[in-house]
Amino acid sequence: MSKKVYCIAQFLPKAGQEQALFQVLQSLEANTLREDGCLQYRVTRQISSPFAEGKSFPLVFNEIWADLASFEAHCQRREIQTFFSRYCLAEDGLAEDWNVCIYSDEPVGYDAPEFKHQA
C-alpha cells in the first residue's frame, strides 16, 4: 500500500470546443510533470471500442501524486487556478462541465508499517 493519490479529472467541452480544450489541457502537462510529487499527469481523450462502452466526459486527466500534500499543492499553483478560472468558470470558457475526484489504494484503517531510521 502507499500514500499515493490517484486523480481522475474529467472535462466536458462546450459544443465545438473539444480540440481547443484538449490543447489547453495538454499545455498544462509540461510544468506539472516538473512538480516533485507528480508521478503521472496525462490528458487523454475518449475513443470508441465495442469493449469499452461506458459513459464519461470525453477529456480526462489521469494523475498519480506521491501524496495528498503534493496533489493539494498542485491545485494551488497559479497556472492551475488560472486554468479553472479562465476555461471552466468563465462564461466564455471552453468547458461546459468538469468532475475532479481523488482516490487512494489504501483500505480504510490500513495498519501501515512505520519505519524508523537508525542513526
What does this 3D model show about the protein?
Strands 2-3-1-4 form a four-stranded antiparallel sheet. It is of the alpha+beta class and 119 residues long. It has a single domain, classed as Alpha-Beta Plaits (2-Layer Sandwich), CATH 3.30.70. The protein contains four helices and four strands. The longest helix is centred in the last third of the chain and has 12 residues.
List keywords for this structure.
single chain; Alpha-Beta Plaits; four-stranded antiparallel sheet; alpha+beta; 4 helices
Task: Write a brief structural summary.
The protein is α+β, with helices and mostly antiparallel strands and 119 residues long. The chain contains four helices and four strands; from the N terminus they run E-H-H-E-E-H-H-E.
Report helical residue fraction.
Answer: 25-40%
CATH fold type: Alpha-Beta Plaits
Q: State the end-to-end CA separation.
A: 26 Å
CATH class: Alpha Beta
Topology pattern, helix = H, strand = E: EHHEEHHE
Structural class: alpha+beta
Strand percentage, roughly? 25-35%
Query: How large is the count of helical segments?
Result: 4
Shape: globular
The tally of domains stands at: 1
Query: What order do the strands of the largest sheet run in, or round the barrel if closed?
Result: 2-3-1-4
Main β sheet profile? 4 strands, antiparallel
In the CATH hierarchy, the architecture is 2-Layer Sandwich
Give me the count of strands: 4
Query: How many whole angstroms does the radius of gyration measure?
Result: 17 Å
The average pLDDT is 93
Low-confidence region ranges: none
